[in-house]
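Q: Got a minute? One more chain.
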Amino acid sequence: TSSLMVKITNQMIEQCKQYITCRGKETIWSQDRDEMRQKLMHCIRLNRVYHNTYILVKRQPFLPDQTTNFSFSENYVFGKFDTFCDRLSKIISMFDLVDDYNSLFERRMEGLLLGEALEDAMKTFETAKAGVTSKTYDYLDQRNTEFDADFEVFLEKTDELKESIGTLIEENFASVWESPQGIRFLTRFEKVSEKIPLTRMEDKYDRVLKYCEQELERILKLFRKQRDDPPLPRNFPPIAGRIKWAR
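A: Always. Here it is, folded:
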């Protein structure tokens, strides 16, 4: 009976592959990424339901006087399907990472990375992506360890790219926080920092807040100095000039 369960597992994996590739007519790269992501998630969900159903069934005796439960080695029965789903999860992670970078590049890192620096970052990412997406092996073969190695290299290169982009952005905008543009750039940094590690965001908040406090203090001092005898705009009568100054 355990061999029957293994055969069922193997058949489920094969049907998942047929479902994902449209019966061998497509690859994971030739289809719409959102649709492909849904297919992969469906297969992962199938494995989860398969596990849960097994647990439910093995707790139920089939005969009134049955003393032993319906039970097999779960690793023996489900191990291959679990490994297959681990592969699908890695592919989903890669899809998510590609989408994240594509979105950031389309928005030019919220305007924080421009010109040659942006082009270099895009080229670096495309090279890293090609290193894992242009291979001829079967990406759905869970026994293929080449993909695992390529996937790790892809993650390493994208992590290095994240660090490089983050450092460059930090250096280019190091002095913006003590300027009127600080608040505007703070919003951009917040969006980019969701995907790219930008350091010391709390420090940036403090610097912008300190600048705003200094500006308020400066304006207050100027107001107190000029309120009794404000400078009037040219050709303005006294009352209208004072109103203009107050505004």
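A: The radius of gyration is 30 Å.
Q: Perfect, thanks.
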